[in-house]
């Protein structure tokens, strides 16, 4: 069966469409929208838009939660018209996913200067008033969004940021033009294609068998500790990065490691977080902190970590002025890695 069969058959025959799972159908649909500008433009007519202003998503508060409102193409055109803007601006939007019913989802930033440059930035307070929401810093709102919206808005922010910072070809200096979906940009003079990029980062929870090693950087919120993280250097395998980062940051030698999971992380730029568990050589547990990288690092017992995982209100200062030891919130892969360590023994598979 050719790669295109599902898409072609879906149009021609219900019988063939039924051969594909919902997930495969959805994936093929998104593939088609990325490849075909006309199909993508058509999808905007029935699609839904998430709005941003200078990379901050429009959110509505509902109790302790944030909701991410969607807008139709019609509502968006009306909004742009009201603020004296051309609907051409909608072409700056990027495709970020679709529903199981194939409603395509897009994100559009109304604050960044449009690449077509005929559109000025829309004034934030006026737009917020009109849309009864507020453009909220994603890092602050991330943990009060449901998982689907948090993930969708992270993707959207990363993609909008990438387009904003890649408007010119690094070889010719000429403008680059995005395709309709925003899955690439092409140089107008030499046709070089640029694709959105993510930097690979390893995040490692080091254990000595009974305790785990957690650390904090000086800019972390008070009391928060996390697993060790570091960018992959060019030419390195993941195993080499884990080994180097642990040695660089806490002066320990990793003995074995086990891959756990991965996560896209939009801050400060797009990273692919690759999470691993690692053990150190027996009897070699003395931490030698690299103060250029970390403010503190320590070994924590299983019971201490289990209690910290359950803490709901980490920012509450204690009576003695100290902040309790707490861990990254649920959405962060660091949390999942630590939870995994607390809940079940890890089977180490890879020597380094
Ligand atoms: N989602 C999660 O659970 C967590 C995510 N992180 C993310 O992991 C990332 C890496 O952690 P760090 O300890 O800061 O890394 P790191 O230990 O590699 O130190 C950062 C330094 O690496 C250098 N560097 C090398 N390549 C870089 C690149 N492509 N981009 C930026 N800097 C680069 C810079 O000098 C920078 O100051 C951070 O951006 C942080 O947001 C960190 C912990 C938890
Ligand atoms: Mg680090």
For this entry, give a set of tags:
binds magnesium ion; six-stranded mixed beta sheet; 11 helices; Nucleoside Triphosphate Pyrophosphohydrolase; alpha+beta; binds 1,4-dihydronicotinamide adenine dinucleotide; disordered N terminus; single chain; seven-stranded mixed beta sheet; 352 residues; globular; 24% strand
Provide structural commentary.
There is one protein chain. By secondary structure, the chain is of the alpha+beta class. It has two domains: 36-194, Nucleoside Triphosphate Pyrophosphohydrolase; 199-312 and 321-351, Nucleoside Triphosphate Pyrophosphohydrolase (Alpha-Beta Complex), CATH 3.90.79.10. Helix content is 31%, strand content 24%. It is built from eleven helices and 16 strands. It has helices at 5-12, 14-17, 22-35, 37-46, 73-82, 124-131, 138-141, 147-165, 238-250, 302-309, 333-343, and strands at 48-53, 56-62, 65-67, 94-98, 104-109, 134-135, 176-178, 185-187, 193-194, 199-207, 211-216, 228-231, 254-265, 271-280, 296-301, 350-351. The strands form three sheets. Strands 10, 11, 12, 13, 14, 15 and 16 form a seven-stranded mixed sheet that branches. A hairpin with a 5-residue loop joins strand 8 and strand 9. The chain is globular, with a radius of gyration of 23 Å. The protein binds 1,4-dihydronicotinamide adenine dinucleotide (NAI) and magnesium ion. 1,4-dihydronicotinamide adenine dinucleotide is lined by residues 199, 201, 203, 226, 229-231, 263, 265, 267-268, 271, 273, 293, 328, 332-334. Its cofactor is Mn(2+); Mg(2+). Residues 196-323 form the Nudix hydrolase domain. Keywords: Hydrolase, Magnesium, Manganese, Metal-binding, Mitochondrion, NAD, NADP, Transit peptide. One of its GO terms (cellular component) is mitochondrion.
């Amino acid at each position: 069966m050719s790669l295109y069969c599902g898409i072609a058959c879906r149009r021609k025959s219900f019988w063939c469409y039924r051969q594909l799972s919902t997930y495969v159908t959805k994936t093929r649909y998104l593939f088609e929208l990325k490849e075909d500008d006309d199909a993508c433009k058509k999808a905007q007519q029935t699609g839904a838009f998430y709005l941003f202003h200078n990379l901050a998503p429009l959110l509505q508060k509902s109790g302790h939660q944030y909701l991410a409102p969607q807008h139709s193409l019609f509502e968006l055109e009306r909004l742009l018209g009201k603020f004296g803007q051309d609907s051409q601006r909608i072409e700056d939007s990027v495709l970020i996913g679709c529903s199981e019913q194939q409603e395509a989802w897009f994100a559009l930033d109304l604050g960044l200067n449009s690449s077509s440059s005929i559109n000025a930035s829309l004034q934030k307070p006026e737009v917020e008033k009109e849309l009864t929401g507020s453009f909220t810093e994603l890092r602050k709102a991330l943990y009060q969004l449901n998982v689907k919206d948090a993930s969708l808005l992270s993707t959207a922010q990363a993609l909008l940021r990438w387009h904003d910072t890649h408007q010119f070809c690094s070889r010719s200096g000429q403008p680059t033009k995005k395709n309709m979906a925003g899955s690439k940009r092409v140089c107008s003079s030499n046709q070089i294609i640029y694709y959105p990029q993510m930097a690979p980062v390893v995040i490692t929870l080091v254990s000595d068998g009974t305790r785990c090693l957690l650390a904090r950087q000086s800019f972390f919120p008070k009391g928060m500790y996390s697993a060790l993280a570091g960018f992959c250097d060019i030419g390195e395998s993941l195993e080499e990065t884990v080994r180097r980062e642990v040695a660089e940051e806490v002066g320990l030698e990793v003995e074995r490691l086990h891959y756990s999971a991965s996560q896209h992380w939009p801050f400060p730029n797009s990273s692919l977080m690759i999470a691993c568990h690692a053990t150190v050589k027996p009897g070699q547990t003395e931490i030698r902190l690299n103060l250029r990288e970390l403010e503190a690092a320590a070994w924590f017992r299983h019971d201490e970590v289990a209690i910290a995982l359950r803490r709901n209100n980490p920012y509450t200062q204690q009576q003695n002025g100290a902040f309790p030891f707490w861990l990254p919130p649920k959405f962060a892969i660091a949390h999942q890695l630590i939870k995994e360590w607390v809940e079940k023994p890890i089977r180490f598979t890879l020597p380094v």
